[in-house]
Structures are given as C-alpha cells and as structure tokens.
Amino acid sequence: SYGVWLGEVVCGLGLERPDGTRLVIARTAPSRAAYHRFQNTLFLDVLELLEAEDGVHCVVLPRHRDEREGLTAIGGGRLIVPQAAVDSRSLMAAADLVVGAGGTMTREAALLGIPTLTLFGGRPAAVDRWLEQQGLLRRLERAEDVLPVARRPDDGDGGLARLRAKGERLRAQLVEAVVQTARTP
C-alpha cells in the first residue's frame, strides 16, 4: 500500500517517526544555475534552527558532492544528509514541511499540497508568484519563521487517491490558464 511504501522510504534513511515527530525535507539552492548568482545564508540559518528543534528531523537533499560534505558537518543527529540518491517525491509526500531554495522540487511539493516555503532570494518566477497567490507556496524571509513545524494529519492509504484527484484538478486549471492566455489579445 501507499502508506507502507512511504514508511519504507522514511525508514530507509534510518528515521523513526514516533507520535509528534515532524519531518522536514530541505533542498539546497541551485547555486550553479545562471539565475542564482548570489549568496543566500538564510538556508543555513534555517537548517541550524531545525537541527536545534526537538521533535523535528530534517532530511537535506544537496545538489552537489561538495554541498553534501559541508552539510554533514552541521548535523548533530536531527539533520540527515543522504549519502546516495533517494526517492525525493516519496519523501516529500511523507513530509510535514518542505523548504526549498527555488526550483522544481519546491514547486512539486507545493502542488502536492505539502506546506512549502521558498528561500529563493531573486526575482520570483511567474509560476512561483502564481503558487503564492494560490496559497500553496510561502516566501521565507527570516529563518525564525520556519518554526513551529506543524505535523500534517496522516491520511493513510487515501493519500494516493487524494494526490491523483489533486493532479487532475491542477491539470484542468493549467489547461484553463493556457486557453485564457491564448484568448487574450
């Protein structure tokens, strides 16, 4: 079942989720991308706060090997930096919060209905502005605003059906937006 699969993905990282434990997935900034040519220390500040927060485990998904090495040094037990590729979509589906620094994973989490924060410091893309307007994405400007991390309700095996229905609604919204844009002179 879907719920069992999510549990296996989370447990595969050595995480246990007793009652009340919250799971945060954090994705590093696209630091080598042409559109992200600036320093943003907010991500590291957020990780340090999450590391110190009781009842929170944070899985950080680095983009590059050198990031992995630097992030591993921050961890004191609650910050997990996988040493190999993981099923990030399943991790996000199991998460209580996703923190991204811009890019596809941040947008996917928001569309999945997972509480999602973006730390991207540049000019937001049109899709990000739309996600913010829909209440699916929130811009994080201060590290302290990441707390408290709330536990999402467990919807058990109904999660897959819920995701499929949400995907269908989003597809319909996208088609309508494209049609409206085509009609606008």
- State the distance separating the first and last CA atoms: 48 Å
Number of strands: 6
Query: In angstroms, what is the radius of gyration?
Result: 17 Å
**Structural class by SSE content:** alpha/beta
Stretches where pLDDT is under 50 for at least 5 consecutive residues are: 1-6
Helix content: 40-55%
Structural description of this entry:
With 185 residues, the protein is an alpha/beta fold. It is built from seven helices and six strands, in the order H-E-H-E-H-E-H-E-H-E-H-E-H. Helix 5 links the parallel strand 4 and strand 5. Helix 1 (2-11) packs across helix 4 (88-94). It is globular and about 55 Å long. Mean pLDDT is 78; it is low at 1-6.
Summarize the structure.
By secondary structure, the protein is α/β, with parallel strands linked by helices. It has helices at residues 2-11, 42-52, 65-74, 88-94, 104-111, 126-133, 158-183; strands at residues 22-27, 56-61, 79-80, 97-100, 116-118, 138-139. Helices cover 43% and strands 12% of the residues.
Keywords, separated by commas or semicolons:
alpha/beta; 6 strands; disordered N terminus; 7 helices; 6-stranded parallel β-sheet; single chain; 185 residues; globular; 12% strand
SSE arrangement:
Elements: H1 2-11, E1 22-27, H2 42-52, E2 56-61, H3 65-74, E3 79-80, H4 88-94, E4 97-100, H5 104-111, E5 116-118, H6 126-133, E6 138-139, H7 158-183
Parallel strand pairs: 1-2, 1-4, 2-3, 4-5, 5-6
Helix pairs in contact: 1-4
